[in-house]
Specification:
31% helix, alpha+beta, 105 residues, 19% strand
């Protein structure tokens, strides 16, 4: 059973991550029990941003609500993670925008 899987932005190699970007810009699929997974911004953040079944990020919701509206099968979670990879903003920039900025320095 897979307990967590990272979906980094295209072009980011987590094994060659000089700046620690993989943790910040990756989407994570995290096992939550009972055969269900969450799509999260950070892997070990119990109450951090999770994706709802409607496709919206939420920073907090009551646990009973999370069990229904924020849980997916593994395949559903991976589909969402693949679709959203590269879209996370950190300080208002995506990973691609940060790379452009670094290249221009």
């Amino acid at each position: 059973m897979i307990t967590q899987e990272m979906f980094p932005p295209i072009g980011l190699d987590p094994d060659d991550d000089e700046y620690g970007d993989s943790r910040l810009f990756s989407i994570w699929v995290v096992w939550k029990g009972r055969g269900k997974y969450a799509v999260q911004k950070f892997p070990n953040d119990k109450y951090g941003s999770q994706l709802s079944r409607a496709g919206n990020w939420s920073d907090w919701a009551p646990e009973p609500f999370r069990r229904h509206q924020y849980r997916f099968t593994y395949d559903e979670a991976c589909t969402w993670a693949e679709k959203l990879r590269g879209t996370l903003n950190v300080n208002g920039k995506t990973y691609a925008q940060v790379q452009e900025w670094r290249a221009g320095k």
